[in-house]
Write a structure and sequence with these properties.
heterodimer, A: mainly alpha, 21 helices, 0% strand, globular, B: Arc Repressor Mutant, subunit A, 2 domains
Amino acid sequence: MEMFLDFFANTGFGLADYRNFIMIGIGVVFIYLGIAKHYEPLLLVPIGFGILLGNVPVFKGLGLSIYEPNSVLHYLYFGVTKGIYPPLVFMGIGAMTDFSTLLARPVLMLLGAAAQTGIFITFLGALALGFAPNEAASIGIIGGADGPTAIFLTAKLAQELIGPIAVAAYSYMALVPVIQPPIMRLLTTRNERLIRMDEPRTVTKREKMIFPIIAVLLCCFIAPAALPLLGLLFLGNLLKEAVVTERLAQAARTSVIDTVTILLGMTVGASTQADVFLTGKSIGIFALGAVSFGIATAAGLVFAKIMNLFLKTRINPLLGGAGVSAVPDSARVVQMVGQAEDPENFLLMHAMAPNISGVIGSAVGAGILWSFMVG
Amino acid sequence: MKGLEAILYHNGFAMAAVGVTIVFTALVSLSVIISQLHRVLFVWDNRKSYINKALRLFSAPKPHESEPVVKYFDNIYESARQFNLLIRATGEPFSLPELIGKAETRGIAHAHSTVSHLIAAGLIAADGRGYFRWNREAYEQLLRQEPK
């Protein structure tokens, strides 16, 4: 009987406390949202499952927990803590992305820059709430709505916050269709939402091939710390546009990004162990993340309205909402909100321009914050 | 430390302002460069013609004002008179083979090359419907320029 009780004490049932069950509940919700509601399923399902794995109570010393140096999960988590997975994800994104709309209307790139204001305003907010500067920088980047960038910066600046920040970033990315539309409707008039965009000019293949080379050199000369993310983003894009490297592009946009996404999602989920995740800081991070995301969306919308004061041909200010880098979700939301007013208004293609520049902008923003903190 | 004090202590406002400025600088510069990319490529594709234009600007001498309008034809005045009479007799509009044929019948020397020179001098002009007309204005202007 004593042996049985000893064994029971070392099982999950014996080791669990209420926080494990809360986290397991969150994991189940993530899996549900991914599968049943189709909210970012490629991310939420691995993260949700990782949360389950990370919150099965285990006996310390057996090398099972993600935080134990000799565990399998720990080795897989290495790619997160050393910032390896996010650039690989960026390479896959680059290999999938068509920059034509951006090249056709470069002025829309400013909307991607404006939306990054949210990062820096939230950074100030986090400082004001008592977070250390490195933590505040990691929290601010949630406003970029870019999971890999948020994980990359947090891995460099505040590893202990990777779990909450990654979960917050991906949660808000998944909730783009819920968070953004009310802000868009609040900050734009019906007439503005009805504005139709001109057909963009045709972009040549050669322009698309030259763009990643110019972009990586320019951005990385201005913000060298953005090199790991932007370097691989534009490498992936060059592989895609160069045609002769189609095999590599194909690998980057399928097997590489899929493998990395599984590992990244699962290990980030597993890092949210109840004892490190359910803290006051996590609640603060979630609250600030929501504020950050809201400010980023609003900044893009307001900037689009300001641009209209100077542009000969007005742009639809909804495009500003796509300045956050949740690709392509926020562009889809712009399309959805625009079509709610005018079913024949097709904004998706135009919204991809600020959306993609948001990816570049948030990577530059992360690079800047990183260099500020280590400088 | 919290609130404004924490922001000021960590130099937060300066970092935020510089950060936003750098993000804008990067994306504005990129946007300006790529907005000109297709123009640069156009110039590159047509580089030979641009180089030739530039070379002509620096090397080609300007024609002297005293030079005659049609320098390659030294007896244009006489030829113009002959063809003026011929065209008045045969009528307008006319086709070039018809005009050359009639000129040869009447014994005008080198009818082909003469007609070619008159076209180059603007005395014979296309009417846009496949025929040609005699340009009286140009003819009278030419005669006014004839050295006495």
